[in-house]
Amino acid sequence: MSLDKNGIxxxxxxxxxxxxYVNLGIGIPTLVANYIPNGISVEFQxxxxxxxxxxFPKAGTEDADLINAGxxxxxxxxxxxxxDSATSFSxxxxxxxxxxxxxxxEVAQNGDIANWKIPGKMVKGMGGAMDLVASAExxxxxMMHTNKRGDSKxxxxxxxxxxxxxxxxxxxxxxxxxxxxxxxxxxxxLEHAPGVTVEEIKQATAGKxxxxxxxxxxxxx
Length: 221
What we know:
The chain is of the alpha/beta class and 221 residues long. The protein has a domain at 5-31 and 96-210: Glutaconate Coenzyme A-transferase. It has helices at 5-13, 85-93, 129-135, 198-204, and strands at 21-24, 43-46, 50-53, 76-82, 99-102, 106-108, 113-114, 139-142, 154-155, 170-172, 176-181, 186-192, 209-210. Strands 4-3-2-1-5-8-10-11-12-13 form a 10-stranded mixed sheet. The protein has a 3-stranded mixed sheet with strand order 7-6-9, with no helix packed on it. 41% of the residues are buried.
């Protein structure tokens, strides 16, 4: 058994802290807004100019003018603010966002991330990811551990064009929670998903993996 996309988002939501400003990238990261732990207040920021995003709207209540950076309809919490992209990126570049959650195609054992382009395929652009990874000090990647072919996405070195260098701090996949040890240039296994063995994680990880002691199972509320 491994986690689905919502399970990954639930586990990442446990990393949130009261009072943080958090940027959510497109894909799995956007689901994190649906699972804010009780008792904390978090402001979700989107680089298209929103601070105070709420969970996704219920069917039939969508407002087509209210979207996130991935063009998905969203809700706005009481007190939310709207501003232009220049102000939004000033917030990002000024390091006023405490946590950035991004999807990725590949992550390297030294913390490099590739998440914006596959050569030969059409792409709209790199979006705000390059500004986010260059400015943020706390970057969590949300992704599947392997691609559709079953190849590992946690590598010794990225093969796709890089978005950022040595910037990823933690990774949550459908199989595990891992930390990037930048000094040792390795993935450190912190938790395994329910029903997933450490051996399965080793086999699915192409980069250097450090496994120390008894690895606890993820707790998904």
